[in-house]
Amino acid sequence: MAMWNASKGFQNSTGQDVNPDLDSERKTASFSVERLTNILDGGAKNTQIRRKVDAVLQSDPEFSRENKYFQSQNERYEGAVRRSLYLSKKIEELGWVTDGLEQKYCYRALGDDLAFSVHQVFMKSILGLGTDEQIAKWIPLAEKHYIAGTYAQTELGHGTYLRGLETMATFDTTTQEFILNTPKISAMKWWPGDLGRTATHAVVFAQLYLKGKCYGIHPFIVQIRSLHNHSPAPGVTVGDIGPKMDFAQTDNGFLLLKNVCVPKENMLARFSQVLPDGQYIKRGTDKINYLTMVVIRVAIIRSEVLTTLMKACTIAVRYAVVRRQSELKPGDPESKILDYQTQQQKLLPQLATAYAFHFGCDYLQEIFDQGYAETKQGKFDLLPELHALASGFKVIATEFSSAGVEICRKACGGHGYSLLSGLPSLYTKLVASCTYEGENTVLLLQTARFLIKCFGMAKVGQPLPSSVAYLSSTRFGKCGAQEKRDFLNPDIYTETYKQRAFRMVEDAAVKLQTLIQSGTAQHEAWNVCSVQLARAAAAHSHYIIVQTFVKALERFEKELQIQRILKHLCDLFALHGIFSNMGDFLQAGHLSGKQSNMVTESYLDLLAIIRPDAVPLVDAFDFSDGNLNSAIGSYDGHAYERLFEWAKKSPTNKQDNQTFEKYLKPLFQNALSKL
Amino acid sequence: MAMWNASKGFQNSTGQDVNPDLDSERKTASFSVERLTNILDGGAKNTQIRRKVDAVLQSDPEFSRENKYFQSQNERYEGAVRRSLYLSKKIEELGWVTDGLEQKYCYRALGDDLAFSVHQVFMKSILGLGTDEQIAKWIPLAEKHYIAGTYAQTELGHGTYLRGLETMATFDTTTQEFILNTPKISAMKWWPGDLGRTATHAVVFAQLYLKGKCYGIHPFIVQIRSLHNHSPAPGVTVGDIGPKMDFAQTDNGFLLLKNVCVPKENMLARFSQVLPDGQYIKRGTDKINYLTMVVIRVAIIRSEVLTTLMKACTIAVRYAVVRRQSELKPGDPESKILDYQTQQQKLLPQLATAYAFHFGCDYLQEIFDQGYAETKQGKFDLLPELHALASGFKVIATEFSSAGVEICRKACGGHGYSLLSGLPSLYTKLVASCTYEGENTVLLLQTARFLIKCFGMAKVGQPLPSSVAYLSSTRFGKCGAQEKRDFLNPDIYTETYKQRAFRMVEDAAVKLQTLIQSGTAQHEAWNVCSVQLARAAAAHSHYIIVQTFVKALERFEKELQIQRILKHLCDLFALHGIFSNMGDFLQAGHLSGKQSNMVTESYLDLLAIIRPDAVPLVDAFDFSDGNLNSAIGSYDGHAYERLFEWAKKSPTNKQDNQTFEKYLKPLFQNALSKL
Question: pTM of the entire structure?
């Protein structure tokens, strides 16, 4: 478009041509953006490595995401496979080691444009569940992509409840083989990524039958496609499950087994073994393995969930200072929409949430590392607590983040509805995390079970694990806040969250107990308390995150500007949480109605206080424009110019307009004589 | 798949093969499903017409939606144009009259598979804003699709705030033409449907300049493409804005005008006229026209928003009785997921919401018809109230419904993430309604402005319009509920909602007043109160809907079974609203903490009471399988069989696997010698 040059002839200090409405926001930062970036990266050296990786990837046209929003499911899939294999080679060439930071940053930058994510799980499951011989046989092949694997657990009719899986593996002592079958349609494997069009092998989870007796779920390596020509192996029906809300690049698949024979040595046998005569031998415990999975869950929160929320905040905040709408003051030019309180109220709490979960991840990583060390030494005491923490954390991280991304998207109005903004795909991808890796309601109820157990232990004077020690408290008093600024005292609000969690756990426990004592069957009582139990578990997890953010502030005592802004965000996260769940806090009378008004006022005041730092706070996430892939969220703030440039590239503007020729032209001709 | 026959050899009373888990749900209905369907349709005769229309459409392969979820943006667009033109012909052949019920039901059945929706708005704007001559010239052409129109109002940089539009129309007295220009990139028309690839003409809104003076926004008919070959008219740049979160069938477009000349008679001149010498003449008032738009808004709520929520409820409730997961009672078979309280809590309130808004639409329609009659007679007194009602209603209808659809989708777990479930597109389509037809936050603040004005009038003893008469109350007492069943008394909970709305309006008004009295500028005071003002407006609208549902129950005094189930839904809608916004209700002390526990218990009890009627309640919406287009929500409940059948049809299972040949085969060959 020659009519306007995207460049406005305005250059910022680094020589970039930046929209003045965005540039001015960067001049008033109250803290060092670079320092905050380093903190988020875990040190200046990491920032350096990350930027190096980003630069390498962005200078390589193979990793361009330019056409992503225009591609079909098929193109996305093919691109992801090609790119992943190319990346593997590149990583090898550059000498970036497995599990090193460079690789981690590659995935941060390219995440949803890569394939083989479940191939990784295939390998991890062999490493965790296989014997040394099995590892030696399969891992080198998988590492080089000489085979492609998948992890086939979920079935069409069975998700979270693993015991309900129906796929059968029957051992035949005469042939020394397992015979795998899908006995019913509901038993078909369904959803595994990389299964639909790629995998040659699968770790299949099936009920093990020995001499007619069921020994429960076991893992088997099953070849499902020919390495020669990729045709399904005998007895195998396999394919792609079709279009989804997102993840077009992933070939989620179905798998149906009819008398598929697998040699005896293909059962992953680290923890259990079948002898030639069909005898079953159990050995060791797979608890350490279980913990590995929990640790992975936390890592996913950081790399997938949190990163996505941070991207959405970056796009929405930058857009909100270049978008102008209506007059705030009559007669003035139209205002930046971020100057409206209603817009601040949408975006700034999401920003605070992103920071809160960042420090939450740090904390969880720490105690998981500790738990892992203990578990390795055979001490399993910490496991239930770690499981409860990880489950609750996963739930609130995914719920808050996906809701937050959608709030950011909607706050960009119509342009947030265009795929070119980058926002719709952030939501449609992220919201899947509320379902995968443990459905959120199921996970909350698992955390609740732990809390109820601990509450019972406390009643009889038993000691409690540290994260739930507060359940031993006898009673809490009233909140001592006298005026609104008292709610900027972390002791005050942390106590308030603690009180809320305690009260909700106690209420659920008492109701449960009362029902059981009055003769209701235990399972029935649990069911009719489950809404309250789930809410109690969420309140507990919310409290832990607030507490963790407050503790994290101590680390910055010598960096006053950084500490100041993080303290504001911590306050905002905490007060927004009270404001949004006020009923929970008022119900038991810990807060009074008057105090709830103070919370509201203090919360709203914070919006105006943080507003001037909003752009520096998202700049600190340090996403490159390539990372964001957003027409409206780029660093230079030229939202409208970019939307127009990108829209013109849409295939809908290039395709022959068959529709006109076929359907419209014959009609329009009738108007020619009349106009 | 020959392995299992989709038929289980089980037939219901009508001879259909139905999943027994779904069939059994239908045998225990506490009311006549057919009667409730008739009520929802507005009479048995309407039901009959609707079913006739559905049958006609479904017997015609042109209207098959079978491949919808597999199609590209281009295919969706082409299909929609073809189908719309075909439908027009069919409607003519069948003699279905304009604005008749048959046509309405066509759109209900085919809604998002049709094109030309903004072409309709193009016609309505000419009918509303044009002179008789203009109507006589353009409408016949548009009706026959001899021209295709669009309504070009929104600009790249301007949405809700119409006064900010930048497109210019300058009158040239020498040529007697208007010269239209897009002065800046932000002034480019952006978003209009049917503009991207279809329209030949547009009603363009532009600032009218006469002799250098701006007279504000006026509408002009502009030809934008050749009727011969569809190429852009001189000075016009036009195209498609590219992919969106949904609405692939619609060619939303951009339009850029450079010295585009339009004859003088193309300014729509019903309410203002330009004389040959450039004199400006205003005549009459366009208020009646404005009301027409408000009425359309209400109609859209019913046909688009509510229908979508009802579809999502139907799919999710049916799926929840055929999906079994985990043991509710140890040792029992896996339970239907709808038997879990946590699942009931997700789905049943959405069902209640659908019924609440159904009766809400009835009520609004009624008072709008009345307002329309008065306005036609030149009485405009009702307008501000009607606008406030419609705005608030639009906001809560779209917010509750889009949130509700997404809750339904997530409640279907992984399968809800598959496009084949039908749920993702219900959400991605519906959520757009929070932004279009007035952005929700902006609308809430308009309603708030009316409420604040009325609150002020009440203070000085002036009479108030009926829907806000409660703002004249001096003070409310405490809630009188003594036990949980008291909260099943509509008088009690309606009063509670009223009290909440009053208190929130009062709080915002007092804060606003205090700020202004202490010297804060009015616009600044408004801004720092805006979060609370928006919430107060939502609380007001919520109260109106509860009140309306309660009133609607009176109509069924002679049909006890129907009244009983509707009363349960009304109670559930009301109590779920209190439960979910408990802070608002507790804050001012109208409810006590103890009473809030009663609400919770009463709310949870209702879930179990309504549970047995859940399937009959969604059956009453009476969507055909073709309407729903869901693999997991069909009437026969064969969710897994249909998912599998549909998945096999995915193009990803038919395309040549180039990816294997090109990228994988060379790698896999290396494993051949090793396995």
Answer: 0.97
